[in-house]
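Structure tokens please, single chain.
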Amino acid sequence: MTTKNFLSIYGILILLYGILFLFLPDQAYELYGLSGESTPLATNLLGGLGGTFIAAGIMAFLARDASASRGRKAILVFIALSSAIFLVRNIMGLAGGASFGTMSYVDLILQALFTIGGGYLVTKEKAD
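Here you go.
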């Protein structure tokens, strides 16, 4: 996979998550099987995560056409590391019994793919 394709896919998917979390929190709760369990604090935190995801998605999508550089490599490092952190956190949550149904495993797979893909592309990036 090319860096351009990877950044495009990551940008679109993380942007969709961001829009869901920020603008449609009730639907996000329902998708994760948490309907009726939302609190104002949880909704605020979910919205904050959504805003961060939107910014990350826009950053990745805009970087897709950039040539190899330190900046583009830094974006790939960000994607690989943030995905790895979410992956470990998700595995720990699942091991502790915090399963959100099918979405837990969808998130786990996406995080693993972004961690592996981002890590691989970091090693291939030719930045000065």
